[in-house]
């Protein structure tokens, strides 16, 4: 990439765009032949970090089309066509050990790890539904954690050979949407469409694959009305004027998912207290129309659906009466998922079964991710302690945010701090620099490296070679409840080995050095790809990480060069105290100096003034 720093500054003002499988194809093909990840022909994932104002989704779509056109040109080039031969062999087999390993996930219902299996007669298909956002504002990093967690599950299920139907809804009618629209004198439906587009752009920024289907609640109003009628017919709901409420008392075993009693069913953030209820814990299935609010016709008069009925109706319509995995944040266990379960039991008239399983239960596995905390409190819009995805990606690369959120197991809480992001940024830079240095060495060695890379790839397919231990460790960690933290930890030793082969006298003379480098390089890349941390264009990523470090440290490259010159002069004068002071001052601003026989260079490092809180 022979581009000036000023050109990269322009790129950093653009939003992040990712090409999902296009980027993966390009990176895999180039990797297989030992080509540098620096290739100008590589399509880009996490391509442009946004530092400017929020960019409309329409701009995202236009840029996405441009990248598609570019990728078509790239994939037709002789380099990529030759590479695709080996790529097809690798893609067809994936990671061979996947066939012998079984994914186990923590089931919230049973409080234990359970194997993920496809139901008989489903063509090895896993049906997964994840509750999507209520689109009334920009998404915060609590949302990012939810959808990154289930993105890696989506990716891993496919890696294991399952066909996956992944449905993630958009709640586009809700009290919060209506309230926000009133504040801005905006039509609620237009506001919802706008923020739904912004949500999708944020997901692309974070390299989350699009779901198989993304239904909106307002597209399924008739199905919701039908579900409510069925629940009433089965004796588990009642109309009160133009409102309809679920009769919680009528349902034996209510609370078995969350462990909460009927008395705990609070009014909550979305369930309005209503004197028309028979019992305070009853929740709304249908809300009567209010002036100036969206409404639809129903047997009970004009109104709109309650929050909980939306997901139940969409799941039944799009996926059938039983799904394999239902996911969401831990805050949805109660009341939302508890009420979803109650509605689905009532609609299927299976309330007399104490614990339905094996094809008769609404959901086979309930999966919930942990909170993102700030000052030990859950991050949420309602608490006002949230940071939007765009807030964070103006300062830190989206790749860094994804890495940070995957540095803990998905079920564990994670504390959001500036120090944590700084450390994640340094780790990403170290990994990227090692991969780039390896790619450079392989390029410098021409056909010998091409042959070594091809042999390394074949050995990994046969579950052999220096990189196989990492691949096995990564797969085993993912199979045990998606242990992303263990995957990231497992790459440390291979990176150390790569740096020894790159920089030590003993390593540079080691027999089979090129093949070992290629094997470790490919193993690291495969492990990162399990987590959606693909690096198809490492030089671009390194440039962006450096520029964002300059922005955070409010320093320019010219100022750094001036400081390095000052330090060099102090060292020549043997004024080591002054030289150390220069180094320390730069470190305070997130800049580390590196001395080598070739001279002094700089790289990003965690700022010494970075605290434990982002604010």
UniProtKB/TrEMBL annotation:
Keywords linked to the UniProt accession: Aminoacyl-tRNA synthetase, ATP-binding, Ligase, Metal-binding, Nucleotide-binding, Protein biosynthesis, Zinc
Name of the protein in question: cysteine--tRNA ligase
Cofactor dependency: Zn(2+)
A GO biological-process term: cysteinyl-tRNA aminoacylation
EC class of the enzyme, as a word: ligase
Residue span, Cysteinyl-tRNA ligase anticodon binding domain: 558-603
Domain of life: Eukaryota
Composition bias type Low complexity, residue spans: 448-457
The tRNA synthetases class I catalytic domain, residue ranges: 120-425
PANTHER family: CYSTEINE--TRNA LIGASE, CHLOROPLASTIC_MITOCHONDRIAL, CYSTEINYL-TRNA SYNTHETASE
Family note: Belongs to the class-I aminoacyl-tRNA synthetase family.
Pfam families reported for this sequence: CysS_C, tRNA-synt_1e
Gene Ontology MF terms: ATP binding; cysteine-tRNA ligase activity; metal ion binding
Disordered: annotated segments: 446-467, 588-615
Record EC number: 6.1.1.16
GO cellular component: cytoplasm
Organism: Apatococcus lobatus
